[in-house]
């Protein structure tokens, strides 16, 4: 038996037209209306799968007026599906306004699992641990980029960015975080899919002639220190004439590490 809902949130492909579930196709066929961000974009998908359902635009500039229309359809017992141009609705796409109204008006809503750039990216890149912070699109101002990059310095920080801005965004991140490791994916599930995992210097050099396509990026957590790194810093400070105890105080304060451990390493580090 299949459970019926009034409203379905339906993910669509992020590049490869085949990345849509059987259930999504079945629901897009079965509902009375499809609310879509851009009717022309969705129509291409519907034509591909020979789906005749009527599309009605629902985007960030008309969401409030469209909510009334869809509520009136639902009150007549019609079923509606929401799609965005690509991927999962409400992941950096419209939907929040209507969902709130539907819930407060007592309609039943369900979301189908499906394509999404951030989850596809997460399952493709090497990663330690399960935690990540996804901030949607990176803001444009240098100040906000720097603030976010330092606020989430200990997290896997994931963001969407346009090809026009990504290189300047990465340069700003480098000013705040140094030459950190990042993962950058473009055109996931498309012909020119590419994933680069390396430090910022490498990635900036690799794309020095520019970058095209749709992009999702992750900054790996900055390591507070590693043994090798600390030894280099200790050696540099010794060369400058600092004593082992002074070095222990400086490095433990700067990198939030144990003072005695630094002191022990300093004792055993030759210049
Ligand atoms: N709702 C979509 C989702 O589920 O991922 C995201 C919509 S958002 C308006 C579009 C942004 O998602 C693009 O600018 C890009 O940053 C990212 N994106 C979408 N498709 C992508 C793909 N195939 N490869 C890499 N990033 C993609």
Task: Tell me what the structure shows.
The chain is an alpha/beta fold. It folds into 3 domains: 7-115, Tetrapyrrole methylase, N-terminal domain (Cobalt-precorrin-4 Transmethylase, domain 1, 3-Layer(aba) Sandwich), CATH 3.40.1010; 118-219, 2-Layer Sandwich (Methyltransferase, Cobalt-precorrin-4 Transmethylase, Domain 2); 230-267. The protein contains 11 helices and 10 strands. Strands 3-2-4-1-5 form a 5-stranded parallel beta sheet, with helices on both faces. Strands 6-7-10-8-9 form a 5-stranded mixed beta sheet. The termini are far apart. The mean pLDDT is 93.
Give the helices and strands, then pairings:
Elements: E1 7-9, H1 22-30, E2 33-36, H2 39-48, E3 54-57, H3 63-75, E4 80-83, H4 96-104, E5 109-111, H5 117-122, E6 133-137, H6 142-151, E7 157-161, H7 166-177, E8 181-186, E9 194-199, H8 200-206, E10 215-219, H9 227-239, H10 244-255, H11 259-267
Parallel strand pairs: 1-4, 1-5, 2-3, 2-4, 6-7
Antiparallel strand pairs: 7-10, 8-9, 8-10
Helix pairs in contact: 3-4, 6-7, 10-11
This protein binds S-adenosylmethionine.
S-adenosylmethionine is lined by residues 14-15, 84, 86-88, 91-93, 116-118, 160-162, 185-190, 214-216.
